[in-house]
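Quick one, T. Sequence first:
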Amino acid sequence: MLDRYSRQTLFAPIGKEGQERLRNSSVTIIGCGALGTVLANNLCRAGIGKLVIADRDYIEYNNLQRQILFDEDDIARHLPKAIAAANKLRQINSDVQIEALVEDIHADGIETLVQTTDLVLDATDNFETRYLLNDVCVKLQRPWIYSGVIASYGVTMNILPADTPCLRCVFPAMPLPGTTPTCDTAGVLNGIVGAISGIASTEALKILLHSPQVSRAMLWMDLWENTYDRLELPRQPDCPACGQHHFEFLDTLTGPHATSLCGRNAVQVRGNAGRHALTLDFPTLATRLQAVGNVQYNQFLLRFSVDSYDITLFPDGRAIIKGTADEQLARSLYARYIGM
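Structure tokens:
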């Protein structure tokens, strides 16, 4: 397999010994949208031994402009993002073990996920999950990389517990809903996705190889304005997470039962049963819902429409209800048609 990585092993800081170390490494990517697909693509081609990809969502046409592991056929097949990405990655590099998780990442279960990986990459679209990642990685002393893109600008920062500042050193309080732009309100250029992902995936290699060249600064760039900055930030001794070891996001045993998906006019609703506590019987449910309208399903999701709402249901009882940002209404629709 070394011929596959010959152009990488010729690079002296990696070499054959470094390539073998990469092959024995595992990386978990939380989120499989724009950043997640490019990060996964880069690391799969680089020969990381195991990639775990976790994402709660399914593919839509507006994703194809920047989410490089998906195509129109994936949409026609109603595939969740994690499954479609895993299928593509296995075709790219059969030497890499790919694990796809179609689920929402929240406090009850994330410790088990992080304990078994060498590095966590943030490719999420919300700060709630990022603060949770920060808590669990600081607690378990696992390195992680924060990344985000919007419009034409992006940011990335390595977080090395007990070495660099953590996310809460930089952002002590989580931004309030509606105070930050989203890709649905400000758009996003695919070029900035590639630029930030290129930096983050290279930093991932450095971290896994224990390179002295690992960045300890926040990197920020705007491709449209041609600006770039590198911010050296100090650790904060009174930081709730890395300073006081108070993990308020991790200590919340279960996530919220309904969460508005920022900028999408959609709400995610979690069933009352706990995570992994059930697997829905889609054929039986589809028969019951035929009276509502056309129902389509496969092994990964069930989808139907009622009035002006599109409801996508996952085997663990989680649903994404599109057509409203009202969490109470979404819970009501869930109870009315799913019934738990």
